[in-house]
Amino acid sequence: MSNNPYRHDREELRELLHQYENMQAGKGHAFIEEEGFQQVIDYYDEREKFAEALQAANLAIEQYPYSASLLIKKADVLISLRKFQESLFTLEKAALFAGNDPALYVIKMDALLALERSSEAEELLAEIVPLFEGEEKIDLLFELADVFDDYESFEKVFDCLKLILQEDATNEEALYKICFWTDFTGRNEEGIKLHQHIIEQQPYSELAWFNLGAAYQGIKLYEKAIDAYQYAVAIDEKFDYAYRNMGDAYIQLKKFKEAIEVLEKVLELARPEAVIYEAIGHCYDKINNHTQARSHYKKASHLNPEDSQLHYKIACTYMNEGAWPNAIKSLQTALKKHLMQPAYNLALGRCFLEMGNIQEAVVFLGNVVRIKPKNVTGWTELLKCLYQGQMFEEGLDYASLAFEQTDSKPVFVYYTSAFLFALGRSKEALIYLEHALVANAKLVKQFIEINPALLQHQSVVELLAKYKKGKSRK
Fold this sequence. Notes:
Blueprint: H1 5-25, H2 34-46, H3 50-63, H4 68-80, H5 84-98, H6 102-114, H7 118-128, H8 134-150, H9 154-167, H10 172-185, H11 188-201, H12 206-218, H13 222-235, H14 240-252, H15 256-269, H16 274-286, H17 290-303, H18 308-320, H19 324-337, H20 342-354, H21 358-371, H22 376-388, H23 392-405, H24 411-422, H25 426-439, H26 444-450, H27 458-473
């Protein structure tokens, strides 16, 4: 048994629980030391048997009425039982014997926040910070940060971490955590000042430089963010997160070649991730290197095969090259995962239209307007398709429906006019064209794009000239 300390401890605990049960039942004259009672309370507490834990705490306090640690244990159990006011009352008793026990303040903060007495919680934080120093103060602040997090007092989480770093500028746990909370709370300006101060003391802290960069990035000062990240990687050349954030900052500045360079560095330093390959693909897309863009999107897709968006992006690279069959194949893969995604249906409609397959194009563009009936782009693409397919009667009906569904957008009055001209109903077409010009003359370009041959109608040319002349007089 002596060679198995875990088993020995387990036997001791079993014997202790047996003694406690005898004491509880009034059998014999069992004696349990204060530390033994704490083990019994912990045993029940860890198994979430809070009523039994409270019972054990009460019996223990009967035996040791001046024990601050047992009173604090009881207060903690009362928190688990949501008896917050009773917990505070118990802590008042404990305070008479406890001195400055950090656990007392953590539990008291928990109770105050649970009772929504936030102003008292803030006063308590200000009161207790000067009472401690060194590691004890830091440990307490970490615990309080966790309590504030539990009650969604996120600003106070940031405050606790800031106090830790003011106490110990090199505390890695606090440096890691405050980066997230600076962004989450939006306290970027404060984060910048804090980390600038830390860097003055610790100029070779790569985490402080990284956090400074992230804070600058949070307020869109991307050039300054990049400078800070470059200091971070100069100190630690394997700091992959600094390269990752730097890549994002370069993308925001539209410096895509620089972004590719640093994101490739991330792939060298860390396990390949779909999001990095996708970001590199995006950069290649922006510099019109569609082959490389597609290659990286495919690598991302291999790592994250369920992401339909990646198949859509692969399709877009094919569309940019006019490789319509390949684009269709990728889009159909995307649609298998998200059948009624408007963007995928729209892209498929455009591909089939480019290939002259009007019937298939109408099906997918029709899906778009059914899914998003107020979307102007979906309607205009469908109407272009119907016009190109010489489905003028259907187009006229759909132009009217589009006008209704999109809160009377003038562009569909132009489409109505175009379809009427195509049907040989020129007088009606001119009336609609004039209405459209009155509503929004700038959109006349779209009318002409529908069919440039419309300008061969003398009446159209005269109306446009008349309208332009009338406008110039104004």
